[in-house]
């Protein structure tokens, strides 16, 4: 049994003016070809790691083609996308006879002139392998799923968790579906129910209500006769595409009507309970006040409007300015993206003081720079290894980086846009996050897997930033339906 694997992984924000180019894919593990895919991703908590584990468990040959990934950012340049897709398809054609295909895709990829990048990849693969070769596609919780990709794939399997700690598991699940299909045990049929809704970030956190109720219902439905898989996708509102929003996908065994009935059943229940998935905006000061009321430390505020993991610039300054205005001590900000200040601190060296203009350089929406004198505590070349639940086993780089301190506020300044998936990089600079009283992370939820064990309380905040969670402010021009909570308003 020979099953090919490859993919193009990108979460695309159309809210930022920058473009994602071939250069953004060409980083350490950005474009990996052939056998190197098996070497790099064996044991890693990513979809491809799950494919490799499944191959070892079920004894099939995994034929590695090309895996390309770039950090979330703006629209992908069409020529660059076509070059990557072209190589993927060329390698697929050259792979010889295949029994199945496993694709690693995100679910919210947008290309100049192509609103559904993921669907475009699946369709291109389908054209090569024909109608009878099963295609399995695990996808991110934040996919904007389309009718087209449901038509051209055999099984789409979405993550259950946020932070995404089940990426490898869902890869294994998709692989098992493909193997069972090849063996003639099942015949997947798939249906989608699209929801006119933007799902509040704070209402989709693993292990916490109300998301626990969603997943309990998903798993209960998966235990029904004839059901192969159920997926709830909360969507990615920062992509301006026609089918933006949440959705439900059902995969059944040779029963299209059952698949549609199940997708509709779960989708209608979600819609009827839409108020549960709404999270009203929370200011920085109100979040800190609530943390102080709770009285446990560190108080962690998640600056999700500047979540670099969703494509934001990472240099918004409202939280930093608020920390300074409130004269907070033992406070920490992870991470401020500012190449100029990072290199300035690096050149000065640890133990020296520098005059800086920090952050606020990418867009007026991100705030103005903070002008201050800072002490350089430590510097780094940015190389480190993830040790948290999400990317354990993979290496990362933040580029030229520094730990600086302005009065009582510490800031880790970096050159690479990356959210703090775990505490490894901060620890490498000598920072013990558990000793801090206040921490700001430029992330929506992925930080939780590593930071919840030390947190006194956690609060998602709506500071000034490009990726606002006041969804009515998003510059949508393509969506084709009214959505909750923008056009269809929540109960006040």
Explain what this protein looks like in three dimensions.
The protein has 492 residues and is α/β, with parallel strands linked by helices. The protein folds into two domains: 2-277, no CATH class; 284-473, no CATH class. The chain has helices at residues 22-25, 36-41, 47-58, 78-94, 117-129, 147-152, 167-182, 211-222, 256-272, 284-294, 318-325, 339-348, 424-428, 448-451; strands spanning 2-9, 31-33, 61-69, 100-103, 135-139, 155-158, 188-194, 227-233, 247-253, 299-303, 331-337, 353-358, 370-380, 383-385, 395-397, 401-406, 409-414, 438-441, 457-461. An eight-stranded mixed β-sheet has the order 12-13-16-17-11-18-10-19, with helices on one face. It has a six-stranded mixed β-sheet with strand order 2-3-1-4-5-6, sandwiched between helices. A three-stranded antiparallel β-sheet has the order 7-9-8. Helix 3 packs across helix 7 and helix 4 (78-94) packs parallel to helix 5 (117-129).
Mean pLDDT: 96
Determine the oligomeric state from the structure: single chain
DSSP E strands, number: 19
Q: Structural class of the helix and strand makeup?
A: alpha/beta
Low-pLDDT regions: none
Keywords:
492 residues; alpha/beta; eight-stranded mixed beta sheet; six-stranded mixed beta sheet; 14 helices; 19 strands; globular
What's the SSE blueprint?
Layout: E1 2-9, H1 22-25, E2 31-33, H2 36-41, H3 47-58, E3 61-69, H4 78-94, E4 100-103, H5 117-129, E5 135-139, H6 147-152, E6 155-158, H7 167-182, E7 188-194, H8 211-222, E8 227-233, E9 247-253, H9 256-272, H10 284-294, E10 299-303, H11 318-325, E11 331-337, H12 339-348, E12 353-358, E13 370-380, E14 383-385, E15 395-397, E16 401-406, E17 409-414, H13 424-428, E18 438-441, H14 448-451, E19 457-461
Parallel strand pairs: 1-3, 1-4, 4-5, 5-6, 10-18, 10-19, 11-17, 11-18
Antiparallel strand pairs: 2-3, 7-9, 8-9, 12-13, 13-16, 14-15, 16-17
């Amino acid at each position: 049994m020979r099953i090919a694997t490859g993919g193009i992984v990108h979460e695309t924000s159309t809210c930022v003016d920058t473009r994602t180019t071939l250069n953004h894919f060409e980083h350490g593990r950005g474009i990996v070809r052939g056998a190197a895919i098996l070497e790099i991703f064996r044991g890693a908590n990513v979809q491809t790691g799950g494919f490799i584990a499944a191959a070892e468990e079920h004894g099939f040959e995994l034929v590695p083609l090309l895996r390309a990934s770039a950090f979330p950012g703006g629209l992908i340049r069409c020529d660059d996308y076509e070059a990557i897709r072209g190589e993927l398809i060329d390698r697929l054609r050259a792979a010889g006879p295949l029994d199945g295909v496993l694709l690693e895709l995100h679910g919210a990829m947008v290309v100049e002139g192509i609103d559904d990048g993921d669907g475009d990849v699946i369709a291109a693969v389908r054209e090569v392998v024909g109608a009878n070769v099963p295609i399995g596609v695990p996808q991110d919780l934040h996919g904007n799923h389309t009718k087209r990709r449901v038509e051209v794939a055999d099984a789409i399997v979405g993550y259950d968790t946020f932070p995404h700690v089940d990426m490898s598991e869902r890869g294994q699940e998709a692989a098992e579906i493909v193997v069972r299909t090849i063996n003639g045990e099942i015949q997947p049929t798939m249906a989608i129910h699209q929801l006119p809704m933007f799902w509040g970030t704070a209402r989709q956190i693993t292990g916490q209500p109300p998301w626990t109720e969603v997943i309990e219902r998903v798993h209960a439905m998966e235990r029904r006769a004839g059901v192969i898989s159920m997926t709830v996708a909360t969507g990615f509102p920062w992509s301006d595409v026609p089918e933006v929003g949440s959705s439900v996908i059902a995969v059944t065994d040779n029963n299209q009507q059952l698949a549609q009935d199940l997708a509709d059943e779960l989708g209608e229940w979600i819609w009827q309970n839409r108020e549960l998935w709404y999270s009203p905006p929370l200011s920085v000061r109100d979040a800190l006040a609530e943390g102080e009321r709770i009285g446990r430390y560190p108080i962690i505020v998640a600056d999700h409007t500047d979540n670099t993991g969703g494509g934001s610039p990472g240099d918004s300054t409202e939280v930093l300015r608020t920390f300074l205005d409130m004269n907070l001590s033992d406070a920490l900000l992870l991470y401020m993206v500012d190449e100029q200040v990072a290199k300035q601190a690096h050149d000065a060296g640890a133990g020296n003081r520098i005059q800086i203009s920090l952050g606020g350089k990418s867009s007026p929406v991100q705030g103005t720079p903070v002008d201050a004198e800072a002490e350089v505590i430590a510097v780094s070349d940015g190389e480190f290894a993830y040790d948290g639940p999400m990317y354990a086993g993979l290496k990362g780089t933040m580029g030229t980086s520094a730990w600086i301190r302005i009065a009582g506020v510490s800031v880790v300044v970096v050159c690479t846009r990356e959210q703090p998936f775990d505490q490894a990089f901060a620890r490498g600079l000598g920072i013990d996050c558990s000793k801090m009283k206040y921490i700001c992370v430029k992330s929506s939820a992925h930080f939780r897997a590593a930071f919840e064990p030390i947190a006194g309380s956690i609060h998602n905040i709506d500071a000034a930033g490009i990726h606002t969670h006041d969804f009515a402010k998003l510059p949508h021009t393509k969506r084709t339906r009214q959505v909750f909570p923008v056009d269809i308003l929540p109960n006040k």
